[in-house]
## 1
Amino acid sequence: MARTFAYARVSTYEQTTSNQVFEIRAAGFDIEPHRIITETISGSVATSQRPAFQKLIERMESGDVLVVSKLDRLGRNAMDVRQTVEQLAANHIRVHCLALGGVDLTSPTGKMTMQVLSAVAEFERDLLIERTQAGLMRAKAEGKKLGRPTADNTTNAVLELKQQKYSQSQVAAKLGIGIATVKRHWNKCS
């Protein structure tokens, strides 16, 4: 007999998974409390790196169902979400996403939905890269200097103290900067 599990995730400890669990129950899924897995971890962390999600995978068996309120609970990266759904499908575990109308992401309709979402995510990423490159080219054409600002004042201060025979650690303490910063400026010509 198929068992139903729920996975609810939030990114910070100030947030709660209560709304997600409520949405899943309101959608008609009667899930036993010990089968509701909650986790506080960033969505940018791959599901393979999430401790609670990995324990969930270990507990699930062929024929089980996993319910999430939204696709982004599985991850923010479309490729990671797709791999997670494919891994679950390979183990004959169905994945239902309430925000997508409760569609089973392992069904033909769900697979198509995942492909469309992946294509849209890739398209958005490509557009973002294109806009960023265009903005950088425009800024260069306008004569704007790109990159990290020069730290001539820091270099001069470090070199001056070096000439006064201060050690690198003494320079760092005197200027209130890190030793790595001092080392970066130590051998520069002024």
## 2
Amino acid sequence: MKKQSILITGCSSGIGLETALIMKKKGFDVYATARDIKDVEHLKSLGLNSLLLDVTKPDTISSCLDEVVKNTGGTLDILFNNAGFGQPGAVEDLTTNVLKEQFDTNVFGLHEVTLQVLPIMKAQGYGKIINHSSVLGLVSLKLRGAYNASKYAIEGLSDTLRLELQDTNISVSLLNTGPIISEFRNNAKQKVKENIDIQNSRFKESYEKSLKANKSDVPFTLNANAVASVVLTIANSKAPLPRYYITKATYLLGYLKRILSTKLLDKILIKI
């Protein structure tokens, strides 16, 4: 029996890497991708099929997919759009260029990969698309404007695509992930230092506090395998759900979003 194939973006560490390793262990034909060649080589050293793919560079997406379908005989069962990063900062502290950089990876990159994969799935008559959103695609937190906006955009694109694919056998699932142990926070801290004028911001104290925080300061944090297990569930499901909540933080905030007025919800979110 032919193995199910899965293409995963953003596998250099954290969720992408953990998912690739678990899916391989479970017998899937895994294609773990990264945007830097050193990370590709590291993935190969772990026994993974790894290919270069930078979601902001369409030619690398095309080259990667050419290699995948050559190996699979022209098919791709599952796409996990996982690549992304977080750019913290108050809306007033974000330049438009910084906001564009956030969207280039998190939204436009995801969209480009999906556009290139869809013809493969439509030709074979089936497929599963998994888009990595966030609890911050459901609610917004202060000093996360760029990231919030990118995840809300993913929600809108995914919900629309799901409706437009109702006449096909291609499913679209969203992962609303809360805090997960990975390099995400460290990378986000670096983005603050690179792109935010901390010293001249009225949020200076908040930035400095966040830069000192560590993973143990965030409640409900889970390991990356919590996300990988949901991807495995989707892969093995005949009828994947349109949305999966991951971590108690997502369940709690998602519930409060449904039952509270915006004004009451704001009073809670402002304290987080």
